[in-house]
Model the fold of this input.
Amino acid sequence: MEAKFVDIHAHLSDNRFEGKLDSLAKELKDFLVLNAGEKLTDNEKILLESKKHPNFLPCIGLHPNFISSATEEDVSKSFDYIAKHVKEAFAISEIGLDYRGKDELQISSQKRIFTELLELAELEGKVCIIHSRKAMDDLLKILSSFEAIVIIHNFEGNQAQYTKAVESKAYVSISTGFIKFKRDNLIKKMALDRMFVETDSPVLSPDNELNTPLNIPKILDYISALRGIKQIELKEKIFMNFKKLFYG
Done:
């Protein structure tokens, strides 16, 4: 199979894409997009959309910020939906921890549900795509207790945390936002066989426009220039990582 562009993390169920997905899908025929959910309504839309657009790979999840802001009943409904439909999902995404502006009770709830979702992922053999904000040390500590395969998206950690993550066999994703974040020293040291790229569409745009998976070549160009390799070589390497991780 010819290498495709892989966007390991996007949110095409976002309302900003309303009415645009059919035309966008035509432009993305050479792309594979892992379409991530944050709550019940997202997850329902994502599974339906994947039937129409097979290259939008359905990922269902429960975002830590939703856990902290929603009622216990709504969080429970979202979790139950994931448990019921996990076999239909390509991966579990997005889940994780987000401590920014959270109190101890909210953090405790996030940790509990994150742990339960990792247990489900292990049981079902699903890859997890992980969110971490202001929580990397705790996140890595929790992950060390599991065998689930994970990709930490839009990696915010430092070099020491990166080293610890890959030593625990985690993969790490670089977003289009890194073009603005200027974390070049970290990118230069990242292992290519543990690397993915993403847009996190519709946010983290490299150019202040609505971000879409069509911007994946821009982050590939950026990384390629830093690493002194051709874009096609990096594209093929990431596609190989994708095939190895999801198809063995």
Observations:
- The beta strands are 5-10, 31-35, 56-60, 91-98, 128-133, 150-152, 171-175, 195-198.
- The first strand starts at residue 5 and ends at 10.
